Amino acid sequence: MNRRNFIGFLGGVSALTVSSKAFAFDLFGLKKSERAMKDFPFKLTDAEWRERLTEEQYRIMRMEGTEPTCSSPLEKESRAGIYHCAGCGQELFSNNHKFESGTGWPSFWDPIRPEAVGTSTDYKIGYARTEVHCSNCGSHLGHVFEDGPPPTGLRYCINGVAMKFFPDKTS
Ligand SMILES: [Zn+2]
């Protein structure tokens, strides 16, 4: 094999690898989301997630679904306290950043700490939205939009079933 043929051969091999990967995704009918491709500190198998979460939580948190608007009691929750991830328990949001958005979903203008959540781009409904997930276990939480109140101008629109609220003991 001369050098030119050899390089051509290598090119062929890498093209094959790429197309077989694409085929694997197509085969299962799942184009994995950007979130699902990331690696997170808290890991469970799919079976363990199904065991740990309710059916609705699994659909929303692991399959990037959305709960019906006005369905979560946390939307109207106004007590002082902390909202934890329903998947792993990590602190995500605080009542200090919660506001009434009128959307029917619990809404916050900031996470409790910048590193509590991660984001990725999702094209589920045909245009780009910024998906929000727990930075510890990767569970999908909701989306963030740029039409929130000051000081950040952000609106974290979060599924109530993805969170557990713990009111402050003093309140
Ligand atoms: Zn989590």
Can you lay out the helices and strands and say which pair or pack?
Blueprint: H1 3-28, H2 34-37, H3 46-52, H4 55-62, E1 81-85, E2 91-94, E3 98-99, E4 107-108, E5 117-122, E6 129-134, E7 140-145, E8 155-158, E9 163-167
Antiparallel strand pairs: 1-2, 1-9, 3-4, 4-8, 5-6, 6-7, 7-8
The chain binds zinc ion.
Residues 85, 87-88, 90, 134, 136-137, 139 line the site of zinc ion.
Low-confidence stretches: 9-29
Query: Structural class given helices, strands, pairing?
Result: alpha+beta
Helix percentage range: 25-40%
Largest sheet: 6 strands, antiparallel
What's the rounded overall pLDDT mean? 87
CATH architecture of the largest domain: Beta Complex
**Number of helical regions:** 4
Overall number of domains? 2
How far apart are the first and last residues' alpha carbons, in Å? 78 Å
The number of distinct β-strands equals 9
Unique ligands: zinc ion
Strand order of the largest sheet: 3-4-8-7-6-5
Radius of gyration: 20 Å
User: Proportion of β residues?
Assistant: 15-25%
Q: What is the H-and-E element order?
A: HHHHEEEEEEEEE
Query: What's the CATH H-level homologous superfamily of the largest domain?
Result: Peptide methionine sulfoxide reductase
Instruction: Determine the CATH topology of the largest domain.
Output: Metal Binding Protein, Guanine Nucleotide Exchange Factor, Chain A
Which class of the largest domain in CATH terms?
Answer: Mainly Beta
Taken from the alpha-carbon principal axes, the silhouette is globular
